[in-house]
Design a protein that fits this description.
mainly alpha; 2 domains; elongated; Arc Repressor Mutant, subunit A; Tetracycline Repressor, domain 2
Length: about 210
Amino acid sequence: MSEWRDTVAAHRQRTRAAIIEAALALLAERGAAGVSMSALAERAGVSRPTLYKHFPDLDHVLAAWVGEQIDRTHAALVDDLAAVADPLARVDHWIRAQLHAFAGESHRFGVEHLDASVHPQLMATIHAKAAELRGLLEHALAEGAAAGALRRDLDPTMVAELVHHILSGLRRAVAQGERDPDAAADAVTTMVLEGIRAPLPAGDDGSPPSRSA
């Protein structure tokens, strides 16, 4: 019985993946306004009832894709941050990882094809997933404050939200190749750490942590 359930689950996942892939291809060709559910079913090689069993509309298909992309970024960040001991380096790594994600092919696709027509379901997914990512930064900030590396009076939630908005302002430029992600990360990290770093011992130059930290 367990093997049968695994087979059904694998088939369901393959079908969902085929639908999402077909939706992205049609979106690139026609734009969101030109993608009907009938065309999507045909391109994915499934019946319309099967398509609707997985997704009620195109908005939910795109939300699923965006969610998958952010989940991958989240999982990678969890693993990476666990290996970084220094609180300042963890903040820097989070910022840098976000900007490099913006420079990736999938994010560039989103900027080119989704930004002009963000529907409620897609926006809700983006907000929820972004909150999960900010949670990782909040945790790093709280640990840094507790360890005395960052100001003890800082509000981790507010700082994480402010950093999120700063990066959102750079998102399109980084995605379109107008800003280098590492140069942007250097600028943001320097600015952010200037505001949240705990008082440093005499002789410390106050520079942001090295990328190898």
